[in-house]
């Protein structure tokens, strides 16, 4: 019976029937505790015994791996709980001296039990194979434990990296092997190891690095109780030998278990964290203690160390479900926020003198914790993390509770909201402290934590972020640090508003739909209520963005622009005063900043133009006043044109139309709004209409009167336009959008052709050497791309790089096939494919030269495995003369397999309607669809789909008799097949050339099938022939070939395979065995090799040897020929060319046609 794949909490029995402990984990942990509680000296006796025990069998080897892993984990736990310092250095003082023995043992166990798990695959040995697999998993998990602190140079030196990497392609071991590589990549370079030694070792990991996962462990209390008895005797050193002997008798009797091994360190950490956090909250609540930060720092230092440990980061999201953790963390940051609020002045706009706090020395310990927590909370909404979180966390992300929500989900939901708000407040309030931007807040850490995942945030999240964090940071940031902070702080926020918020407004205005990223969660709520809630969130964010612009326009942040108009004008004459005004004006900094100004101007146009929210418009008016002042001061043609073409028309339209409202109480009276907008329009009018009339003193009354008449006339014109019928308004709106699309289309075409050409011309090594971001920066440096189109380029590059990567990998796989085909030695030694590749083939796999930049080592391994599987079917006997005659056939197969996969699996690079703004996407999709239809892309898709169905029909064998019959007749074979009505009406629309190509390929396969049958039949005749003369003649021929060294195909000597005597003997064999069959020469040589192998099998009859040597390959070929037929579907035809590269075949040709 198979072993149970789980641990038991009860006592079991050994093979002799004696009662034993039922879990290896408890035993392993116990041994490790003994080792670490009595010092390293006990390891001198323990390690040799473990090595000896592991040699007894797979079950014992698994136990040894458990013990070695526990020794490492218990040591790490002791270090984390009782010591301060670098983990690697601490452990190496003890366990480090045994590393050579431990690593060598792990390598040996991996080699032996991996090999044994592959060999014991028959039904009668399945149980043993399972145990070998469990041992390999245990060895991999142990390797991962040691990789956490062992220098990577040692792991590479003893071959552990290479062995773990070789197991990545085995599904059953992949997760365990990936854990090993994750531990390597999380480690840092030890101080005592030189860079020249460290870098090559780490570099060897990159080609085989993939995703990583982990496990957990619980201690079984009853089992630990069973092991307490021997502990007391270990206090006396003299008793060690006797106890060790008794202990190993116990270890040898422990039954097998197939459960994964992992540790329970995270449980210790979270409990210690919660105790420390709760202690901090209690101690800080006492008034006296609040004045003694030194005492509080004694608690915060170990708390911050816990948050910096890799184990903590790995399990942090799991702790979100821990009520004690949630409460303790939230209480800390509420306490911090309240302390910061006490230091702030009661009445202040935030730009006054900075304040001091008695907690200034504690904040550097708290902020990294807060930023890390916020970053992990933000990541819950990203696709990468959301895919792996628990159901409770997923449900807690929703805004509302559903009827089926559990108490835990509701508690986590409330906690996530409170932590966000409180965390943002703490960061914002820190900005009011004296010296915060120089000594406390790091722009990279703060902005990275707050904005890294802003694209995944919901409207409510961004609203809180702007209100509680970004606005205070903006208010208090010194002007000397604007460049350092504002570039990374405002750009992501503006980008989010430009696209996500803009998209929601487009849905509301053009489709009358409420579309927000916020997920409400409760399916029982009516659509009307959800729409009201969604539109409310959209209005709140819009108004918060307007508040952000109002803050940017604050007088204290705009230096000289805050002066009266007359004073500003007096300063314009001198350029040095102008530069001084701009350097002290936040509005001036943003509007003269190339990476931000376009976004700012677009958002103002949206607020005053497209987005019909009167409250948001009114709030943003101060910013427009500053913009007009800046245009007046700088005489900037761009800004003056913007005032004239955007601000004035939008304000006039706003004075006439009725604003859209969300029903919020934050409504400004119509009279007040009208006055505010009229004053803004007057300011803009003076800036653009007659700047030369502006002088000292008040404006002439005639100018004001003239403005009022002008304004009434403009409002009247707008009113007349708005009285048009709805149909006309809709037609005009559609016409404007269509015109916008048509005007943007040449820019889009230029971008997509530029991206296609740029990536096509990149060298192969560029893909691995540089990240997508670096490649994008390289493209932007060589092409003039507007800042508003950067996101489009990013999307295009992402698709093109993915397509090009697979295209080049297919090409290099094909070239690697060529290398293998031209290799004139057997690939496999001793019939063992996994461990027995020829040394020269192994060098090809490990070749890290620039010859294979896009083909990683594991891809080469998979290509070699695929090639060996081809040889099993098409070249079961290796000989250089077979390979030379068979080479073209193999090359054709390699081409079909590699490039056929590319067509089936890879999405080609082509235009995408999502590259366009939301309101332009319907027009873009219609244009793309029309172009695909006009230029044959749709027809090519239909033809290739029908062609695949035709190949499936041929694979059924329904047409094989007709193909065989007509193939042998004279005349046009394919025309006869097609004209004879054999195909029926199903494939009448399939292109004639495509049908002919499939029929020709099928005919070749049938011809090969006939050859296989003839070969089997005539080789069987030779075996069954009882004529002594024929048998002796063939044996004599084989012996002569052997004397001529015909069968020495794997020696290093240069044998002249084309010499005359070989040809004569091969021809003689063909006359005796295959006379009149006209089989290809490689079949004749295969017959010689097969017969020689059968004659060497002296322990079997010739008939039995024939069944193994000839019969098995024949059956294998016949059983897989239908799969091979479909796997090698690759055709060079115009339809497939269009599908593979629509940019080249459609868009580029159309662009060339227009140019001509």
UniProtKB/TrEMBL annotation:
User: What start-end ranges are recorded for coiled-coil regions in this protein?
Assistant: none
Pfam families attached here? Exportin-5, Xpo1
Q: Where is the Exportin-5 C-terminal domain?
A: 267-670
Membrane-spanning ranges:
none
The Exportin-1/Importin-beta-like domain is annotated at: 26-180
On the tree of life, the source organism's domain of life is Eukaryota
The protein's name is: Uncharacterized protein
Q: What is the lineage of its organism?
A: Eukaryota, Viridiplantae, Streptophyta, Embryophyta, Tracheophyta
